[in-house]
Amino acid sequence: MADPADPIRVLIVDDHQVVRRGLRTFLEVQDDIEVVGEAADGAEGVARAEELRPDVVLMDVKMPGTDGVDALRRLRELDNPARVLVVTSFTEQRTVVPALRAGAAGYVYKDVDPDALAGAIRSVHAGHILLQPEVAGALLSQEGPHAGQGRGGTLTEREREVLGLIADGRSNREIARALVLSEKTVKTHVSNILMKLDLADRTQAALWAVRHGVTG
């Protein structure tokens, strides 16, 4: 298990060298963030993520060859534990939503304030999900009106409590503290929730909870 005092290991994946250099220059002055590598496209990003095992990947969406969405899907197939924060210049939901459905923990725009970017990295590393309301709404509409219908009854009361806290954006550590449980127990509950609801990740679980009125 990583020491809480260890810096957050970040991999930057973007096809523009000037963007990578700018992100690295800023992040390297953060005491709690360490840039461990860079990649110029999605395929290289997946390979570097497997090699370096970063905590957080900053991923561009539109890149030549393997784009960010394909890279996200590949990382999920490989069960890579890195949390992916999409950094994009595209504001359209049709660009951002597929990335979130592919497993991104959230997104920021390339003109984001540097301090806000550092905060976003810390937030997704802690297990939070960064969604703007309009994008959350688009994701919910794409799930369809019957997604997960009827499966909520299989959750235990404790699992519903955990699910509500996931919907509030709490990390496993924060959930453990709130419910006076060990982090290992919380991870087990999260796994059971995803299995019972047939969901792929915490983002889908949070959206399911919003749709079905499960709150922390």
The total of beta strands comes to 5
Mean pLDDT over the residues: 84
Rounded radius of gyration (Å) = 17 Å
Q: What general form does the structure show? A: globular
Terminal Cα span: 27 Å
- For the largest beta sheet, what order do the strands appear in spatially? 2-1-3-4-5
Quick gist of this model?
The protein is an alpha/beta fold. It has helices spanning 17-27, 42-52, 68-77, 93-101, 114-125, 133-143, 157-167, 172-179, 183-197, 202-211; strands at 8-13, 33-39, 56-59, 83-88, 106-109.
Report what the structure shows.
- The protein is α/β, with parallel strands linked by helices and 216 residues long.
- The protein has helices at 17-27, 42-52, 68-77, 93-101, 114-125, 133-143, 157-167, 172-179, 183-197, 202-211, and strands at residues 8-13, 33-39, 56-59, 83-88, 106-109.
- Strands 2-1-3-4-5 form a five-stranded parallel beta sheet, with helices on both faces.
- Helix 7 (157-167) crosses helix 9, helix 7 packs across helix 10 and helix 8 crosses helix 9.
- The radius of gyration is 17 Å and the shape is globular.
- The protein starts with 7 loop residues before the first strand and ends in a 5-residue tail after the last helix.
- The mean pLDDT is 84.
Can you tag this structure with a few keywords?
about 220 residues; alpha/beta; 10 helices; about 50% helix; 5-stranded parallel sheet
Could you give the topology of this structure?
Elements lengths: L7 E6 L3 H11 L5 E7 L2 H11 L3 E4 L8 H10 L5 E6 L4 H9 L4 E4 L4 H12 L7 H11 L13 H11 L4 H8 L3 H15 L4 H10 L5
Parallel strand pairs: 1-2, 1-3, 3-4, 4-5
Helix pairs in contact: 2-3, 4-6, 7-9, 7-10, 8-9
